[in-house]
């Protein structure tokens, strides 16, 4: 029975988007995977020499000391990205399969997730290098096994806390606190936790502890799921009462307002789109990295100031604008058969982006504390975002065509994956073009001319709006059938 | 109202729809029946320019739907749940459609009041998002939304499916009432030949993408259809 279920899993894998959505995407995924494997292997292999020779510390004890951060980070990372395994087990519930088998299968298949496997690519080369450098094999082995257990512990811990936001945020806050304490020499958690990890190396008997922990976590994850394997419990779709939003005041903006009102509801009522607001807020503070000393002078160069300027006001543009028109993918046929002119529709999206950029710029006025030139960079970035990048995201939107399942987060164990590599790639020209423009300008006449050139490009772009919209409109029209078809795939 | 000429839709080597000629005059209530995969939804999607015809044209009021967008002002359709916006409550959805069709909120409210029976107190003022409604209630929302702004052409795919018996009967009455208006053309597809014969003046049978029967409804039609599908 278990084998049969595994075979299903294999089919799901083979038929997933990564392998069936064309050669280009497959190659892209493959390269992505190889890249990660390569990076991890290199890290595992190289970190020994780096630590030993460059930093002059004992690699093993250094790793052990910082393992507490590594582990916590890994838990947080998993929480956001890792998909939950119990998706689609409803099918099995009424089939003659033992309930325990279903749960074991659902939990068991997570072993092969990227988050577990990628660790092997770090720890195996690292351990081999240790042995090669005269560390006793049996002790390294014991340490290695402990690490394996810990990795799997984070795997099942994540499953347990995945629907417990409070637990997750508590862990995150404690982690940040420890990091801050350590930074300011108040309290150093690593001096306490280092020896714990050292003990796995010193005495193999301690290695039993993480394995026992793993067993315990697996058991609790098992009971957790087992008890909730009912359609009205763990597999239930949570229904919330609709929230009231008064948006009548927007009506003064005419036809554009119809879509803006809808988009505001879209953003506020779907978890997936709500995230764009949070990320925008994060982006707003991203500039702090550049404009304070915390980067250690890494971003001193003024070219990077423009880069930061684009980000500060561009959070919404990158997270929301990037996915136009995919936000409307679930009801695109409706939009296409209603009395809607593309221009009105696009203009509404563009207005949202422009307004959000303007608001971010206002909110970002605290950057003036770091000097006028800093705020000038942000202002310039905002002008460029409104004048140029606003079009670019709409333009690329015509080609992205990845349907967004707004309801996916409604599933109790829905995935939390909110971005993909393709759109990330399309972000690059939006960032580097202004940097190049600035660089050219600064060569011609210094910093001020650099800002002027970027800002002027934005202003010129703004006044060409009608022309650009003609182009985007034609594009959307020619892509209409393909887009409709692509959106149909998952819904 | 609708004119179809040499219309074909092919995916690779398979022809899923092939209609050489068909006219649907204004005011007609037209029913489309056929088994799964006969091409009913394909035909409706072509009428709404949601998929591209391999050959031929569909015109609504003499304008080719794939080049002109004039048809959008007087056509309303509900094919499936991709015509609903899940994160809106039904009222908001109705107002949204109303705004697109230049119908004021007040007029929408008046129209909705007329469908209180049809809604059976399960749709309005429930503070429920459309995505959380049952399939049947979602269908009620979608069907009534097409009535907003009194469009001249209504296209409904499987309007009776998922509805409870009471609502099916009410919908039949509703459509019959609408059908009496000589300005409103209605296109309905269904698996239920009895419903279709009760509501429609004309019935076409689609089989493997071709119109194999085109009947004016009379008292013998139901029998004829039953015989056709019992083979």
The overall average pLDDT of chain A, rounded, is 80
Class by alpha and beta content of chain A: mainly alpha
Mean pLDDT of chain B: 93
Distance between the termini of chain A: 30 Å
Biggest sheet of chain B, strands in spatial order?
A: 6-7-8-3-9-10
What string gives the helices and strands of chain B in order? Answer: EEEHEEEHHHHEHEHEEH
What is the helix/strand order of chain A?
HHHHHHHHHHHHHHHHHHHH
Give me the Rg of chain A, rounded: 26 Å
Percent of sequence in beta strands of chain B: 25-35%
Largest sheet of chain B: 6 strands, mixed
Instruction: Please report the first level of CATH classification, the CATH class of the largest domain in chain B.
Output: Alpha Beta
Feature tags:
heterodimer; A: about 500 residues; mainly alpha; 2 domains; B: about 230 residues; alpha/beta; Rossmann fold; 6-stranded mixed β-sheet; 4-stranded antiparallel β-sheet
Plain-language structure description:
The complex is a heterodimer of chains A (491) and B (231). By secondary structure, chain A is mostly helical. Helices cover 73% and strands 0% of the residues of chain A. Chain A contains 20 helices and no strands. In chain A, α6 (99-108) crosses α11. Chain A is globular and about 70 Å long. The two termini of chain A are 30 Å apart. The relative contact order of chain A is 0.08. The model of chain A is unreliable at 409-419 (pLDDT under 50). Chain B has 231 residues and is of the alpha/beta class. Helix content of chain B is 33%, strand content 27%. In chain B, the strands form two sheets. In chain B, strands 6-7-8-3-9-10 form a six-stranded mixed sheet, with helices on both faces. In chain B, α6 links the parallel β7 (153-157) and β8 (185-190). The chains are: A mainly alpha (491), B alpha/beta (231). Chain A binds chain B through residues 237, 239-242, 258, 261-262, 265-266, 269-270, 330-334, 336-341, 406-407, 410, 481, 484-485, 488, 491, and chain B through 48-52, 69, 72-73, 75, 77, 79-80, 82-89, 92, 96-97, 99-101, 127-129, 131-132.
